[in-house]
Every structure is written in C-alpha cells, then in structure tokens.
C-alpha cells in the first residue's frame, strides 16, 4: 500500500511518520508532489501552527487545487482537519479562507470562566462516534449513547479553534463539559480528526490502523 | 470531559537519565527512551525531557534523543533545558518533540516568545518559570510574594512571578510550567498559593512542579490549586507512587483523569 504524508512545512510531520512506523508502515512517503499524492492509496494531511500561514504554504505548493480532487481515503489531522473547512477565525484581520472541502467554519473557543483555558490541551474523551474510522472504540455501532468513559475513549487534543457540530461530524468531544465540538469530520473520502491521532496512545493507534485498513469509501 | 494530566519529568545528561530509578524489569534505567516508553505504557499522560547537559555536543545528542523518544513513544512530550535559539526550537520540533520549554532565554529576551509562537504556534511553546517565595506570608496565601529565579533558584531576576507568567501568556506561550524552588525537593507538597494565583489569573494551561511526595499532594494542586497538570520526577522514578495507583486514587478523589490502561 502506498501512503503519502503531505509535506507543506505545516508542522510536526515526523511524529506522523513515526506513528506509521509503529504500525509497521515503513514506506510512507513525505511529499508535496501532486502526482505522488494522487497515486497514493491513503493520504495523511497533518497540520500544526497557524491557519493563514498554512494556507499560504498550501497555495504556494499548488496543493489547494490538488487536494479537493483526490478520491482515495484522506485524513486531515488537527490543523489539517480545520483546513478542510470554509473559513477560520484564525489569521490576520477577518480570518482565513480555507480549502472549502467541508461545510464548516472554524471558530475560537470562548471559555465561560478562568477555569477553562485556551488552548484546549490534554486528554479528552470521544463520544457519538460514527464510521469504521472508529471501529473498536466505545460506542461505534451502538444505538445507546456512549456510557461511562473508559481508557479507550481518550485522545490528546491541543487547539484553540474548533469546528462546530454538524451533519459532517463523525465524532464529538466536549469543552467545556457538556458543550460538544467536532472531534472528527467526514465528507465522502475526506476524513479529519481534531485530536493528535499520532500522539494518542493505543487509542490513536487503533484509529490510524482503521484508517489504513478500513473500508472508508 | 477534559482531564487533568500527570507528567513525568526525566532529567537527561549526555543522552542518559541522571537520577537513579528503581524500576524493576527495566533493562537499562539510564536509557531515557526505555524509561519514557515504560511510563507511556503505564498510563502517564505526558513526558518532559529536561536536558542538563552543558557541552557543545549538547544539541546533536539531544536531537538524536528526541528522535528516538518520538519513534518509540505514542504520547506527547516536551523538551527543555538551555534552549535559546530559534534554530534549536525548529530542530527539536522537526525531530518529533511536541513542545519546547524555555526559561532563561525568554527572561533575557521576552520578544523571543512572540517570535516562536508566531512561527511554530503557541501549542508548541511552554514557558517554564522557576519561582521562590520571598516573604513569610504571615497573613496567608493572599500575601505570598513570589519572584522569578534562575540558576536552580540562586539568582533572582527582579521580576514578580505572577506578572511574568501573565506577560509570557500574552506574548504567546501556550502553557506555563511553574516550579516552586521553595518546595522543589521537599516532598512536602506543591506550592498551592502560587499555583492558584497563576491558574486563576492567566488564561493558558498551567503545569505545577516541585514538592510532590505523596498522592494527596497531586489532589491538592489539581483541585484547590487549580493546576491543569502536575509534574513529578522522583516519586515516580523511585517507585513511591505508581502511575496506575495514583490515577485510581485521584479518580476516587474526584479528579478528572484519563484512567490508566
């Protein structure tokens, strides 16, 4: 299987490559070449840092035109997920126009009190999981709401902006407690996760494994 | 819900862990990679590698170590210790560190925080603040005076600690790592008043460090102290507390925790 990790100077790609290695994938290619990306069986799109600089780097590499045309399973991670939306509040005056592949607008957390910090940083539990991307985790396939949190439900988040819950949401987390946001999104072959799947312990490894092997059509 | 974090700190010199450990079943307790992997497996939420090497070889050794830890460990980790140049930060992040922690360099040049946050994002920039209580606070915690110190608590830099924390956050630090030099090594508990003052007055997550000796100390700094994370070294390294046992205790005490696997 050919796996492409998109390289656009968008942050901590090394951690994603190492996470793939731990799953036995040693031939993943770090690339910004449109043909290599189009030819891959799976495409990972990491992202860290700030939205407007990331969009500038994507445009400079011509990737803003390539990514929406892809048809294989595609996974945006953290900022890589947010960039799939239409617009972000992050960025100089007025925010940043994003790739527009999913119909959400990214907004900043506005905590109600000093106990809730921004960034939302740390381990939080997923709920309302859908699609085979989350196979093997609590709640998938169940009609009941996810029960008490277990170790299996927790993943690592670091972000100050978020995508609200919508039709495209395939996983939720809550911050503050009781206020859900999109922890996972999907449109067709385009998936995204807000958390750092590559740094989320055994749960993250399960989700990455599902992405590499699952029927995500 | 978002949980509080437990963080183990590994002191590293020339690529080796320097404080002894009594982990049984660990082939080489001086190998930071093996130790980091062991903690991750036990359910620690995050790791800090604190490099205390003071040689010109430092950077290369540290970057190699960071790569090896990132290769083996599937949880986030921060690297700190004498980091000052933008190029060092970039190299460490590109090698797989999730965050870097800065201390003396940003006290000398506060604008470095702004520059690093712009370039790498606030999520990657931790500002470490070593502070010492400089009065006896006869009237209680509200009267405590805390000042920033460097060089292991020996050199005062003439800054009030809570104000410096606020400035660091405003300049773009994504997290603050507070160490009370008045409590570090005492095992009598964390600096609750100082931690609370920063946690309540600054909008970014706060890691408390210095003074952990027993399980109730963690409860106190995470609940009344208001810290988002508690860091410890020797209580974990010497096996006084197991990660799983401490997490069970904290969950039972009503602290939101990711359960140990």
Describe the protein.
The complex is a heterodimer of chains A (217) and B (261). With 217 residues, chain A is α/β, with parallel strands linked by helices. Chain A has a single domain, classed as Rossmann fold, CATH 3.40.50.880. Chain A has helices at 13-22, 34-38, 51-60, 63-66, 79-82, 201-213; strands spanning 3-6, 29-31, 42-45, 74-77, 87-88, 96-97, 105-108, 120-125, 154-159, 161-162, 169-174, 180-187, 190-193. Chain A has a seven-stranded mixed sheet with strand order 2-1-3-4-13-12-11. In chain A, helix 1 (13-22) links the parallel strand 1 and strand 2 (29-31). The longest helix of chain A is centred in the last third of the chain and has 13 residues, at 201-213. Mean pLDDT of chain A is 91; it is low at 141-149. Helices cover 36% and strands 23% of the residues of chain B. The model of chain B has no long low-confidence stretch (mean pLDDT 91). At the A-B interface, helix 1, strand 8, strand 9 and helix 6 of A face helix 2, helix 5 and helix 7 of B. Chain A: InterPro entries: Class_I_gatase-like (IPR029062), GATASE (IPR017926), Imidazole-glycPsynth_HisH (IPR010139).
């Amino acid at each position: 299987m050919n796996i492409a990790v998109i390289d656009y100077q968008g942050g901590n790609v090394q951690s994603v490559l190492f996470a793939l290695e731990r799953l036995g994938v040693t031939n993943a290619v770090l690339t910004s070449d449109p043909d290599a990306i189009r030819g891959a069986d799976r495409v990972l799109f990491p992202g860290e840092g700030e939205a407007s600089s990331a969009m500038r780097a994507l445009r400079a590499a011509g990737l803003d035109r390539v990514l929406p045309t892809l048809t294989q399973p595609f996974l945006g991670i953290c900022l890589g997920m947010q960039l799939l939306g239409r617009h972000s509040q992050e960025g100089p005056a007025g925010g940043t126009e994003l790739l527009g592949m999913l119909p959400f607008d990214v907004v900043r957390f506005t905590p109600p009190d000093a106990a809730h910090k921004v960034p939302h940083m740390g381990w939080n539990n997923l709920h309302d999981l859908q699609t085979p991307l989350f196979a093997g985790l609590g709640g998938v396939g169940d009609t009941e709401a996810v029960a008490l949190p277990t170790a299996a439900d927790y993943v690592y988040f670091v972000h100050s902006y978020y995508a609200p819950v919508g039709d495209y949401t395939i996983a939720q987390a809550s911050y503050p407690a009781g206020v859900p946001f999109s922890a996972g999104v999907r449109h067709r072959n385009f998936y995204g996760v807000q958390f750092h799947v590559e740094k989320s312990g055994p749960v993250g490894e399960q989700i990455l494994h599902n992405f590499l092997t699952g029927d995500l059509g | 819900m978002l949980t509080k974090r437990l963080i183990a700190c590994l002191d590293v010199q020339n690529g080796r862990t320097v404080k002894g450990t009594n982990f049984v079943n660990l082939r080489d307790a001086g190998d930071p990679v093996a130790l980091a992997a062991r903690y991750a497996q036990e359910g620690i939420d995050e790791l800090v590698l604190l490099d205390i090497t003071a040689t010109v070889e430092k950077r290369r050794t540290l970057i190699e170590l960071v790569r090896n830890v990132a290769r083996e460990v599937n949880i986030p980790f921060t690297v700190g210790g004498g980091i000052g140049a933008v190029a060092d930060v970039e190299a460490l992040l590109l090698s797989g560190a999730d965050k870097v922690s800065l201390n003396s360099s940003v006290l000398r040049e506060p604008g470095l925080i702004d520059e690093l946050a712009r370039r790498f994002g606030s999520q990657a920039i931790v500002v470490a603040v070593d502070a010492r209580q400089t009065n006896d606070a006869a009237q209680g915690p509200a009267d405590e005076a805390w000042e920033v110190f460097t060089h292991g608590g020996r050199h005062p830099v003439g800054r009030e600690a809570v104000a410096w924390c606020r400035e660091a956050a405003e300049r773009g630090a994504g997290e603050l790592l507070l160490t009370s030099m008045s409590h570090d090594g005492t095992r009598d508990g964390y600096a609750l008043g100082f931690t609370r003052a920063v946690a309540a007055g600054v909008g970014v997550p706060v890691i408390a460090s210095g003074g952990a000796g027993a399980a109730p100390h963690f409860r106190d700094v995470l609940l009344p102290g208001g810290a988002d994370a508690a860091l410890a070294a020797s209580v974990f390294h010497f096996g006084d507390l197991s990660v799983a046992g401490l997490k069970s205790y904290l969950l039972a005490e009503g602290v939101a925790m990711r359960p140990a696997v």
